[in-house]
Amino acid sequence: RDKLVTGVQTCALPISEVLLDFEKEYNIRVIYDVFTSNDDLQARLGSASQPYDVVFPTANAVPAMAAKGLLGKLDKASLKNLTNIDPRVDATLRSWDKDASFSLPYMWYTVGIAWNPKLTAKAYAGRAMDSLSNVFDPQVARRFQSCGVGVVDSASDVMPLAAMAGGHARWDGKNSLAVASRVLDGVAGVLKVIPTDEYVDALASGKVCVAIGFSGDAVQAQAKSRGSIEYRVPAEGGLLAIDAMAVPANTRNKREAHLFIDYLLRPQVIGRISNTVGYANANLKAGEFMSEAIKSNPAVVPSTASLSRSIPIPILTPQDQQDMARAWGRLSK
To answer: Is the alpha carbon torsion for 13, 15, 16, 22 positive or negative?
Structure first.
């Protein structure tokens, strides 16, 4: 049989049944691997011992990966289902991959605030929970420390929101980093840094009562906790992000890679994945294959007003990444 090697971030998991169905239809064996961050993926792509055929980076990481020669240009002519992509999501993707030469949208989501209303009401009765100040204002965050206040372990997702909380709405590199660093230093020792693969369970089990993280993870926590978790784009603003589909430059199975991407562009396939992982997809025709509970959930598809407050997750320079790592290290101690 032919072979296909995929590398997927935790938040972008295609469900195992989908992979099995692809294998049966095309007689292509899928080797499935999970990476924890874009940095982790870049390191693997740069290693000759780690050949992948399809990868799912966050879209803001695509320009750097392409510039380093790690990604190959897509053969869009071979993709029969390309017209299923929502042009609005595709336009957002171009905030990062200008010509969309190296990537296509897979799932999209927001980065915002999730909370357990029963627990937060006990810790701080009457408090409006859709504000970044609940996590980033030291006096407020301490009120929630008894039931657990935290952030997902992803500096590139959390620090732009910390800058917003500090009054710096638009990311501009150095100035935003300085503001975000001061905000994080103010809540060091109060916030829990939650590993990405533990975030859903931490929310669902009540180990934390309020946290900054990914919308789709909040949806999964809602399901696990039977609806006891709420999620919103913060009143001050949130981040809009896309998990992209891309083909590494050193793929050994280019034909199979494009077959797999085209398979995921089928509305019935991507709709099924959205129902399971709780992330909105970029497919115009997938709605009829998605459950009403998913389509109507504001954590999955925020209101127009909420989306208008969300900015695309920024592209980070190498200097940004180094500065972020230092600030994040202080928070994680």
So the answer is: negative
